[in-house]
Amino acid sequence: MINWDAHICLPQHPLADFSPVDQLRAAGVNYLSLNVGADMNPLSQVMSVIAGYRATIAANPERYVLASTVDDIIQAAADGKLAIGFDLEGSLPLLEQPDMAALYRELGVRQILLAYNRNNDAADGCHDEARGLTPLGYRMVEAINDAGILMDCAHSGRLCSLDVMAASSKPVIFSHANAYALTPHGRNVTDEQILACAATGGVVCVSGLSWFLGSDKPCAADVARHAAYIAELAGVEHVGIGLDICFQQKELDDTPPGGFDPSYWWPASAGYSADSPPTFTPPDVWRTLGAELRKVGMSVGEVEMVLGRNMMRVAQQTWRHA
């Protein structure tokens, strides 16, 4: 059995401490997707983070493997190691060059979404005006498919996400998003989006962030509730886990340079408040998540699908073999 966490954040800093990654490994995670940047991070910061994270992984071969294939993940689990891939939240770090997708793939990026909350020249964010996927965006989707990278629609506008899912030749995922029907937040996904994702053969990965779960103290039962809703609507083969735990390290300043404005990326009009930050499920939630999924009616085999097998399937269908 492989436990797969589709989205985790460390500080966007090359010297980020990997201790939180070790906590997830100790809790039973076999593969995690580690964020290396978003639309608000300039290319210089993204590349510095990728270089720093790669150096940490390379310096600890007894603990970590930078995974290229699903077989790498299976072998790492057998060896008692944690397999890691990177994800990119937004197309701005691609510099409007679709060919950048293949370069990021070589650097370890295994999934990419096109817009982080706000619109850019390729796609719409979920907290901005609805326009739909742009001509550049269509070229980006094709390039991401061709590079063998998972096409992600988290943080995307609803109309735009439907365009992406219609355009993609490979399964599409929402790496960290919950059911809007249960928690009506703009970052969550509607039944229409969930069903469209399933139609691609994709997976909606449940986030453990309080705002999106509708719980001030999020726990495994909250995650299981959203997973059960998605499974009932679209089928259990289309549910995964992407807890979106954001680990802060106060000694590291990872503020994007160049006049970064948090209120733009997380607008008060969408329900965000600097005075009331979100809370996250703890890493140990992985120890109890299987039992909570059983409580909502899933069989042992279905639990294994949600915790990892579904994401293994879409990765196997998408990732280009090295």
From TrEMBL:
It holds the Pfam family Peptidase_M19. It comes from the Bacteria. GO terms for molecular function: metallodipeptidase activity. InterPro entries: Metal_Hydrolase, Pept_M19. Gene3D superfamilies: Metal-dependent hydrolases. One of its GO terms (biological process) is proteolysis. Coiled coil: none annotated. This is Membrane dipeptidase. The lineage of its organism: Bacteria, Pseudomonadati, Pseudomonadota, Betaproteobacteria, Burkholderiales.
